[in-house]
Design goal:
Helix content is about 85%, strand content about 0%. The chain is built from 7 helices and no strands.
């Protein structure tokens, strides 16, 4: 072999090595992006599970609250029945975040109405059981707010990654869909509920 053919072979080998290294680096980057998307999606699902736990906790308080006030405000039977129905709807809507947000907002409004009605009954207001339930409800509302914030932060990070280039290409290729935010449409109502509970 001559020096000229050796130089051509070296250039071919160098070019092929560079191509293999570039393809390998690209493959590693795609794998890293895919794993990042999987991690962020898992964090979002875990954060939703935490929100769900707190919402179920509040739903579990409703029957106790209704039982506690029933004897004192039996004339408000429609309010109590409505609250039980809203609780049922919130549980049924668990599969859709948007539907769950609406159902949970309606349940929170119903809780506010029930607590306002209970305030008008001095014996009920002084009931130790009612005071314990109100404290438990206040603590649960705070936990819901914290869990919702954590979930929405996780969704924001996940959605930003899914929408950014080049991750969006990998996201489309592997069907990573954006996640829905969990926004309570009645934040003032929640704050009013907390204010009413914290005044105790």
């Amino acid at each position: 072999m001559t020096n000229g053919s050796l130089a051509v072979n070296r250039r071919a080998v160098t070019s092929m090595t560079a191509s293999i290294l570039t393809a390998g680096a690209l493959l590693l980057y795609v794998a890293w992006l895919y794993n990042r998307l999987v991690t962020l999606r898992s964090r979002t699902r875990n954060a939703w599970a935490q929100v769900d736990v707190q919402l179920r906790r509040r739903s579990d308080l409703v029957p106790n609250l209704v039982k506690c006030v029933k004897g004192y405000i039996a004339h408000e039977g429609r309010t109590l029945t409505t609250m039980i129905e809203l609780r049922r709807q919130a549980v049924v809507a668990a599969s859709s975040i948007a539907a769950r947000a609406v159902a949970e907002t309606e349940l929170a409004q119903s809780l506010r109405l029930l607590l306002a009605t209970a305030e008008a009954v001095p014996r009920l207001r002084a009931s130790e059981n009612m005071l314990e339930l109100q404290e438990e409800l206040r603590a649960t509302e705070n936990r819901i707010a914290f869990a919702r914030q954590h979930y929405n932060d996780s969704v924001m990070e996940y959605n930003a990654t899914v929408a950014s280039v080049p991750a969006s290409l990998i996201a489309r290729l592997f069907a990573f869909a954006p996640a829905a935010m969990f926004s309570a449409s009645d934040i003032e109502g929640r704050d009013a509920l907390l204010l009413g509970l914290s005044a105790k």
